[in-house]
Amino acid sequence: MSPPGAALEDLAPAKINLCLHVTGRRADGYHLLDSLVVFADSDAADRIAVAPSDTDRFCVNGPEASGLESDNSAGNLVTAARDWLRGQSDAASPVALTLDKNLPVASGIGGGSADAGATLRLLARLWSAEAAICADRSEAICNALGADVAMCVHGGALRVRGIGERLDPVAGLPALPAVLVNPRIAVATPSVFAALDHRDNGPVPAMPGDGFAGPGALADWLTANSRNDLAAPARSLVPAIDTVLGALEASSALIARMSGSGATCFGIYETLDQARNAAEGITANAPGWWIRPTVLNADAEPRSQSAKGDAHVEA
């Protein structure tokens, strides 16, 4: 149940890596990444609620809550985010936090990190601690809570580099009707990185200065110029990822690719109706999978309103 009198709520949307290049490794073991990241709409999102309380409380409900019984990472990130921000604030009163869990655990779409990001946004408002999560605090957030959390705090379309602390907003990307598919197999990110053959790969190239006319143009550019370097090791560990990609390709997706470290894959379509039809078809053939039609980067401005050159981000 949600806490009585919940004062604030926020979405924690799925994070999708349209591409993910592994470009090196730091001496401390953290991998260096170069990724183009967008977020889903409310059809593929968790939700966090926060309310003042007499003591700290945390509870989880929702269709994916049972996944936390075997992997408490999402719950731990919510409470870890609370505890970290409390250490940055002079007036952090006790709170009741409720997580409505709709995203599968350990699925490559940043569910736990998105939950932490939403928690930080809400508590920063409640505790008047916005300065603790501003853009120049991204490295501190990543070091304390994980490489994906800073990008989930800020949202939008992002070029993400370093270990996840270098965040550059990217304009010129269209809204992307999409289908997210997970075969109900959890994938441990450390295992995928351990199976990676090459860690010094090339970065994401500069994008067109005038942006992209629509989903098809972006899909063509992604196919020709980018990749997910974690796909091969993840597919070697979880062959079902190939089955998911095959289902998306058979649904006439403009591009089908794995997100993050897997096993969730995404397909991009020209229209939301096409995405919904594809989701229905895949569900009919694989009713046990987690499947969601959604719109990625849903808040994108129409191309005519985007200033020429806004999407050009140099390496």
Quick summary:
With 315 residues, the chain is α+β, with helices and mostly antiparallel strands. It folds into two domains: 8-169, Ribosomal Protein S5, domain 2, CATH 3.30.230; 176-305, Alpha-Beta Plaits (2-Layer Sandwich). 30% of the residues lie in helices and 24% in strands.
- Please name the CATH architecture of the largest domain: 2-Layer Sandwich
Q: What is the helix fraction of residues, given as a range?
A: 25-40%
Mean pLDDT across every amino acid position: 91
Radius of gyration: 19 Å
CATH class of the largest domain: Alpha Beta
Derived structural class: alpha+beta
What is the helix tally? 9
Major sheet attributes: 4 strands, mixed
For the largest sheet, list the strands in their spatial order.
1-4-6-5
Strand and helix order: EEEEEHEHHHEEEHHHHEEHE
Q: What is the CA–CA distance across the termini?
A: 46 Å
The structural domain count equals 2
Question: Spans of 5+ residues with little confidence (pLDDT < 50)?
Answer: 304-315
As for the CATH topology of the largest domain, it is Ribosomal Protein S5, domain 2
Gross geometry: globular
Strand content: 15-25%
| E-strand count | 12
